[in-house]
Amino acid sequence: MALVKMVSKRRLPTSEDKENLTEDASKARKQPLSKKTKKSHVHNEVEENNSVFVKLLKTSGITLRTGENQNQLAVDQIIFQRKLFQTLRKHPSYPKIIEEFVSGLESYIEDQNSFRNCLLSCEHLQDEEASMGTSYCKSLIKLLLGIDILQPAIIKILFEKLPEFIFKNVNSDGLSMPRLIINQLKWLDRVVDSKSPPLQDLTTKIMQLISIAPVYLQHDFVTSLPEILGDSQHADVGKELSDLLTENTLLTVPILDVLSSLQLEPKLLTKVRQLVMGKLSSVMLDDLPMIIKFILHSITATDALEVISELREKLDLQHCILPSLLQASQSKVKNKGQKSSSGNQENSGQDCVILLFDVIKSAVRYEKIISEAWIKAIENTTSVSEHKVLDLAMLFIIYSTNTQTKKCIERVLRNKIRSGCFQEQLLQSTFYIHYLVLKDICPSILSLAQSLLHSLDQSIILFGSFLYKYAFNFFDTYCQQEVIGALVTHICSGNEAEVDTALDVLLDLVVLNPSAMRLNAVFVKDDMHLVIRKQLSSTMFKYKLTGIIGAVTMAGIIAADRSRSSSLTPGRGDLSSEQCTQVTSLLQLVHSCSEQSPQASALYYDEFANLIQGRKLAPQVLEWAGQTIFNDFQDAFVVDICVVPEGDYPFPVKALYGLEDYDSCDGIAINLLPLLFSRDFVKDGGRLTSQESDQKLVSPLCLAPYFRLLRLCVDRQHNGNLEEIDGLLDCPIFLTDLEPGERLESMSVKERSFICSLIFLTLNWFREVVNAFCRQTLPEMKVKVLTRLKHIVELQQLLEKHLAVTPDYVPPLANFDLETSEVTPHTSTAVSAKIRIQGNLGGRKRKADGNKTSSPDPLSKEDNSECDPAPSDRSQLEKEFRGKEEKTSVSLQNYHAFFRELDLEVFSILHCGLVAKFILDTEMHTEATEVVQLQPPELLFLLEDLAQKLENMLTPSVTRRVPFLKSKGNRNIGFSHLHQRSASEIAHSVVQLLSPMCNHLENIHNYFQCLTAKNHDVVDGPGSTTGQEYDIMSSCYQRLLQILHGLFAWNGFFQPENTNLLYSALEVLANRLKPGEPDQALEELLSQSFHYLQNFHLSIPSFQCALYLIRLLMVILEKSTAPTQNKGKIASLARQFLFRVWPSEEKEKSGIPNDQLQALLSIYLEHTDSVLKAIEEIAGVGVPELISSPKEASSSTFPTLTRHTFVIFFHVMMAELEKTVKGLQAGTAADSEQIHEEKLLYWNMAVRDFSILINLIKVFDSRPVLHVCLKYGRLFVEAFLKQCMPLLDFSFRKHREDVLSLLETFQLNTRLLHHLCGHSKIHQDTKLTKHVPLLKKTLELLVCRVKAMLILNNCREAFWLGNLKNRDLQGEEIISQNSQESTADESEDDTSSQVSKSKGTEDGEEDEASDGEKEQESDDDSD
Length: 1423
Description:
Layout: E1 6-8, H1 15-21, H2 23-34, H3 52-60, E2 62-63, E3 72-73, H4 77-90, H5 96-108, H6 112-119, E4 123-124, H7 140-145, H8 151-166, H9 177-184, E5 190-192, H10 202-212, H11 215-228, H12 234-247, H13 252-261, H14 266-278, H15 288-297, H16 304-314, H17 323-334, H18 348-366, H19 368-380, H20 389-401, H21 406-418, H22 424-439, H23 442-453, H24 458-474, H25 477-491, H26 496-512, H27 514-536, H28 541-558, H29 577-594, H30 598-614, H31 619-637, E6 638-640, E7 654-656, E8 668-670, H32 672-683, H33 690-694, H34 703-717, H35 727-730, E9 733-735, H36 749-773, H37 779-804, H38 833-838, H39 871-883, E10 914-920, E11 926-933, H40 936-954, H41 983-992, H42 994-1014, H43 1028-1048, H44 1059-1073, H45 1082-1094, H46 1103-1118, H47 1124-1139, H48 1154-1167, H49 1171-1188, H50 1206-1222, H51 1233-1255, H52 1263-1291, H53 1296-1323, H54 1326-1329, H55 1332-1352, H56 1384-1403, H57 1408-1417
Parallel strand pairs: 3-4
Antiparallel strand pairs: 1-5, 2-3, 6-8, 7-9, 10-11
Helix pairs in contact: 3-4, 3-5, 8-9, 9-11, 10-11, 11-13, 12-14, 13-15, 15-18, 16-19, 18-19, 19-20, 20-22, 22-24, 23-24, 23-25, 24-25, 24-26, 25-26, 25-27, 26-27, 27-28, 28-29, 28-30, 30-34, 31-34, 32-36, 34-36, 36-37, 40-43, 41-44, 42-43, 43-46, 44-45, 45-46, 46-47, 46-48, 47-48, 48-50, 49-50, ...
């Protein structure tokens, strides 16, 4: 007897599997069996017949029942199987008895009820305690399948019976016979090898059943395969299922589920994976989780990256969810308030997505290769548009599931954010679509956001803030509390970027979700109070500054006047006594914590003043503040004028700058000098007088800030009426004589510094006084304000004298919203740092950089490094510097940060023309009338300040770039009040000033016109440039044009909301030319404005003014839709300015700053009709005149062209020439003959200009000139290659002579460039030699390109290549170790082109010019 081969199953059934197997059976017998007891047996219910089948079963322990009764098992299941097995084996007719037993079974189950009972579990008759096995009883068929010798026959019977029930409906008792039959085959303890006879292949039978069964049974049959088959059958069934997958897409999910459970070859898995990957975009969303599970299950280490990359591209969950459902989801999130979005999910699509991400989470958690491959796939994606919502979601998920990859995830995120691949829109979409998935990993997202906020990169910090914002808006209440806690932690960190970002996020959350923030406000409020108190008590000025600002802001919020918003509910607008106490207590705390530091106190006063100015406070708080501030200011700084301070002061104390004559002792004065002396005296360890010790010591540093606070409080309380404090406008100040005189040189350094500080404090006092009273309308008040302006200008002139002899002096602070109190003046000198060191200048000593009223010109920002003066010029500068070392002066522009800021309202003074001051007698009758007018020095003072404000606010940020690692806040020191307004508000205020500024502009124009008439129609005639008045008027002219240019160059005019403002500004200018013409079109306004401004060109007094006028006309022209009409006027005007003789200044040898000359010359060449003709005129006429003129003279045609400015002219001409030819289209062979001739003519002119310019280096061989020649010479040759050579390709035959002439000329130029390369190497100048390799490469390309042109035109024999010798600029040979050639080589160079030319003439070809050119480019220089 053949042995039966047994195969062990892959796994054993679990209790859960057993429960599933009997699900249908338990349903069927639930009601009928529940009424039965194990003791009630009816005799006629037992199956009684004499068949072998029934007898053997009964002998072994099973009694068959009829009807719906369960078969009864009297013994344990294992005992039954052993008894039956032994009975069959020991039977005399074995193995025939097996056939009889099976035959009896077949006969018995022909009855459907009997068959059903055999498929259902048996009833155990044994007591539970006596049972050796489990209480669960298998069915009769299941027990018989556990007997090896019966298993094949039983399986055969089942498969034969199965087709009978496949297409039948479910029984009335709810049982499915096919499912019951298949369940018998599951989880068998042993399976006889399917390849052993006489059993047919089990796999084949099952697959045949699957092919004919209905869909609902197909699904069950497929999913049952892993529980039926043995390991040896996995390969076969896997192949069968893969084939079925291509035929029946409805079985995709169960087939993939089964394949994931089988042990299959990698090739088969790869094949199936590729098949489903191709269908991924078209599958149902419900099937997606199982498909992704299979794909991830089939990944190996070798193909992980490839598979994940493909999966990432094809898996687009954003489009799997219907748009309507997505919108509903978004609406739900936006309106959910504090309700959590977890719980019942109405969107089945979201359920599937959640299930899908659960599958992915499991994969990336337990399979390292999957998480690493997914990260790598995202990292390898470079295009911004290729990044998807899934990318961000996956990074968040991997970050939360795998702690080992957190650093890697952070690195990838940072790189993607920096490159712009991950932006806010992508993050927002990620939260909108997957917020239910991300909600479960909220702690990890907040941890990631915290890490991003620690970055130094602003874009990364911003992305981290978006994470906080969206986490708060989309997640539940618990997560929101966590977000608030994290943000407060950032606020307390002390890191500026973190604090600012966290505060910005909190503000955004209050706006976006106020209801949610209201519930979390208690966390913020308590923490803010605690943080502010800690910061106020800090000894570090940085943190104390933050605490002061925070406390004042908090007080302003509490004390805000809500009467308007609460008008409908009377009584709600008043501040409660408790709130009033909170405000006063908080402000008193700030005052007490800052009184020991003058800087902190001054900051508190400034911040409190800003609060009063920008926010309407409750009347109770204003009343308390006004009374307190008034009394404290009077006690600290105001004294009676009749009581002259006495003490051991270094200078006599005098009451100066009073505007009234006090006949009695009822006047007041500002006690400045004694306060300043007391502070310095105490600081140096001196003793206070008894009078001083009784008084509270107040720093004079707080005088101006405290007065600003006082006047704003009075202004707000009395609606702009300052009568209560108008005595401070004209009261004198206790000072000393500030005019230095002869005693200046004998003063000690400490005394000089004391005087300087005194002047600074006085100036800042007057500036705040002007700020306060500039809007007063009474003529007498206007006169006093103008007088104070005059005092400011006078004091500035005195200050410059004192600063010139006090080099190391640092002024007292005037602006206090800084992180540090250590601010030093910005200094600039007219010489290099090396010269400064040689001259033994101090670190803070200031050198004059021109007229004291001048400021750095912002017009030209181009790098002019190649235009530096030559070494000879620098040595001359050094000599001049040493000769004038004792005449050092300063520019107050460098001390801008130490002056109090002028308010924008101060410039209403520009409206002032003539102001009459009435002098009264003792009886209050008019005794005389004095006329006061805004004088040029005061006008210049106002215009300079306004110009600085416009440059700071309206100039694009690109043109005022901040150097790396430099504090960008330094540039904004002194503009704090200005930055509280928008650029549109600033522009609107300046437009209101256009009319008075035009008045001043026209008056100054008339002034210079009169000078021109006196000097015989020459504005800069003899004697015209001498005198301070001329300089001041010229500076006023320049500032007015600068302000107009700054206004009209503002890019905000291109925004639709500012169109009306532009119209208003242009109407002001147009009405000056043609008054009384309303409602004009924009083009007409632009045209009239252009003509109005153009009329000023005849009176322009300086080159700087000329450049500003040109730039102003250009920005007006840019706003026109037809700018070409006036383009020629710009060129003509620029030409006139270049032709004009300008007054010379000490600052520049030519009287013209280099950058400004370069800017104007560039404008001329850019706007002229013919750039080539203009360049030829300058280089062919102006330069020869310069060469033939004396050393210090200039060109007679171009007075601005001197030896000093030649490098500027040369640089601009070379750059514009290269730019012009580069923009010329190369043309094609299809163009007309006329076009070819025109372009060839154009290139002849361009090469001629290039030749003229290049040959100038033989005369002007300074380093900057050679640098320009190397740089732009190469660019010109490159343009010749790209633009001209294609033209020569198809013009060579028809225009032989023209092409020859062009190439011959260009040959000489390129040969000179080659000589220049040799010159650069000989002199070993790195600035020059860095251009040599690229230039030589370009020249070699030109050789090859011309050869190709000759071959194209069948003239290859005319091309001859020789060796060029290294020569200098004068043509002399440069001797080196490799230069041992005979002189015959040189003659060969000269004769070769002639030979080639004669040959070309013989053959009718035009090759010879090209020959010489090639010969010139190729060199064998070994350097």
